Amino acid sequence: MFSNEERESIYKVIYNRRDIRSFLSTPIPENIIHRILNAAHHAPSVGFMQPWNFILISTDEIKEKLAWAAEKESRALAVHYDGGKKMKFLDLKIEGLKEAPITICVTCDPTRGGSHVLGRNSIPETDILSTACAIQNMWLAACAEGLAMGWVSFYKKNDIRDILEIPPHIDPIALISIGYTENYPEKPILELANWEKRRSLEHLIFENKWGQN
């Protein structure tokens, strides 16, 4: 299906994609945003339920409110870390929301497809897992477009529902900041901050049964 060059390009994007927190205010052309969203919409979904929606946020007023929600939760979480690690946690710029020209709230609708969706009847979490596939497609597409993307994962869902007027049954899965950047690191930010190291793949693979190498 793919030439050697095309195959290598896919792996290059996978290995070089990063979670970014520093953005330029440079506007993103609408056709590029549409391509990224179309890539997300072509993600696999269990039972072909396609549970996602995308709220595009560009106004400073709403970005400020989202940043407030993220900052509030990050400080609440910081109490769980001691000493230097706590400071590293607070110093990591987790919101990026006020800088990026656009933030996308990716939501999951657990009612999409009705009460009987192939696969979801057995494993209800497959709607969220399907939405995560759409987010990964967004990340790879953004990287291929030369854009940076940051997943903001610290907030109370009800805060986001209130700010964006999301119905109570809809799950706000992620706040995604997208923009151009001058700081695209060679390694993940948390790895550079010595927060954690990448685990060895060989220790994560078992044969036939759990724990069996």
TrEMBL record:
Residues 14-180 form the Nitroreductase domain. It comes from the Bacteria. GO terms for molecular function: 5,6-dimethylbenzimidazole synthase activity. The keyword Oxidoreductase applies. Keywords: Flavoprotein, FMN, Oxidoreductase. SUPFAM superfamilies: FMN-dependent nitroreductase-like. It is an enzyme of class 1 (oxidoreductase). Its EC number is 1.13.11.79. InterPro entries: BluB, Nitroreductase, Nitroreductase-like, Nitroreductase/BluB. It holds the Pfam family Nitroreductase. This is 5,6-dimethylbenzimidazole synthase. It comes from Lysinibacillus parviboronicapiens. The lineage of its organism: Bacteria, Bacillati, Bacillota, Bacilli, Bacillales.
